[in-house]
Every structure is written in C-alpha cells, then in structure tokens.
Amino acid sequence: MVLSRIRRALARALWPDPTARLEEAVGSEIAALRKEMVSGRHPARLIPPRELLVLPRETAERLSRERVRPLYLGDHRALSTMLARYKFFTDTRDVGFATHLLTDGYWEMWLTQFMAKTIKEGMLVLDVGANFGYYSVLMADLVGPKGKVIALEPNPNASQAAEASLSINGFRDRSTVIQAAVSDQSGTVMLRVPHTEPKNAMIVPEGHTSPDADVIPVPAVTLDEVCRDQRVDFIKIDAEGGEYNIFKGMQAILKRDRPKMILEFNANRAHAEPLLQMVLGAYGSLNCLGFDGEVHHVTPERVMSENFGEDWLLFLE
Q1: In which domain, by residue range, is 251 found?
Q2: How many Cβ atoms sit within 10 Å of the Cβ of residue 40?
Q3: Left (φ > 0), alpha (ψ -120 to 50) or beta: where does 27 sit?
C-alpha cells in the first residue's frame, strides 16, 4: 500500500539517521503524497508566501483550511499541510498547537502575515523557542537561498520534528536547528515539558517535579555565542518566561545589530520589570502587534498593567 510506504518512510524522516539523505528516505512516496494533497476540487497552485501580504486574513485562513491534508504516521506522529504550501510534522499528543495545524493548517495568522511582510530575502533570522518549527519553515522560505534561519528549541522531540519539516521542504541548506535552551550563560538547565502542551515548555529549578510533565536536562546557550560573528536581522522570541535571561545573553547582538524583534512579554512573569527596562534601554520605545496584524505604539505603563497576566507581542525596531 502507498500509505504504508509513506508511513514507513516519513517515520524514518521525522527522526532521521544523520548518515541518510532525507530525500532518499522519502522518495517517490512524497511525490505521490504531494499530488494527493493538492488534488480534488481545489486549485493545485501553491500559495507563494509573499501572497499572504495581499490576501485578506479571512481568505488566507480559509484557503489553509480547505487545503489541509493531515496524515497519521503512527506512534503519535503526523504530517499535514501548512499554509496550503508546506509539509509539516507534528505530534498528535499536542493539544494546544497540533490540533490547529492538523485541522486548520495555520497558526496565529496575524503574526504569520506580519512575518511575511517583515522578513526579507537574504536576512539572518533567529527563531528562539521554535517549538515544532512553524515559523522556522515560513522564515526559511522568506529569507530565500541567500538567507539563513537559526532555530533554537530545547525540547528534543519538537526540535527533531522542526529539523525534519525544514529538510522535507527543501530548506536544509539555509537553516540550522540547535536543540538547546537559550539563556544568559551556557551549560545545562532543567526543562519542564507538559505532556499535552509542549509549546509551554519552560526552564525550571533543579529538583522540580510535575505529575503532568516531563522534566529533563537540556543544554543551554547564549545568542551572543551562537551569532558571535554574524549580523542578525530579525529575532522571534517566545520562551515562556525565559526572555529576561535571553536578553541578558544577547547584549552584544543588541549593541552591534539592534535587530527587528518580535518578543512575547507577560507582566505576570518573573523579572518582567527589569526585562522591560532592558528592552527600553536597547530600543527606546515600545510597539505591539495587535490581533488586527497592525503595529501600535504602546506605553510601558500599559504593558505592565493592562490585561495583566496575558501575553503581549512586542515589536521592537
């Protein structure tokens, strides 16, 4: 059966043997799957990422839903269509993220379209807290063959899936996945990975235990170490409370490059006030990205008090 061959080939691709070529592992089965994904009553044309700029948000969401083609590979692994264009691996145990990708084919369309508008060809971009690599895949297409994406994700399961998605879409040569947490110093840290919400993984103190999560040791790096001799143009940071230490570990990048940045900020997290002061010291003012996909000026007072406990997406430039 074709589906059996696909399942076996892609199961190997999700956790690839580093000595094997992904293209050889998948072969003709992927070509058959791609034909099936775009067949039927919907047009076969793939949506170029820049076209997301001109499509109304509702239209982009509708097209993604219409063309999503989930395929279960076994052992909690699935392949689906992302943004009516890309092949994307995920974990079916993931309730908060994978359910949306498998049924809708997109995630946070307001931020997706903003990325398509902001990231240019030839850029070096960082995806900090890459999770399963949704934004990493989009970024890799947007920067083109002369650009580079560095995705950093400490969860081994998610980082391996992100690497497989980047490779299967043809972005291996322009992307690097680093399986590590990002902090203010290199070493080893403990990572709490919720069983059904791996996107909410966070660094915890040594000795921490949790009945509904795995707590595992993972390596830690700083952004200044990762990009010591490289100009950084754009960064997305979503690290579930680790943003303060991440900022402490990227002072050289901020002084040298002052890259554009999407930063998740929550006033209810530890070190929120000193983090905000570091942000203001580096960028001088604050903007936020709204659910309307537009950038709005915002004051520090609003960020610290309004919708307390909820996430802001700060846009810094």
Answers
A1: 2-316
A2: 11
A3: left
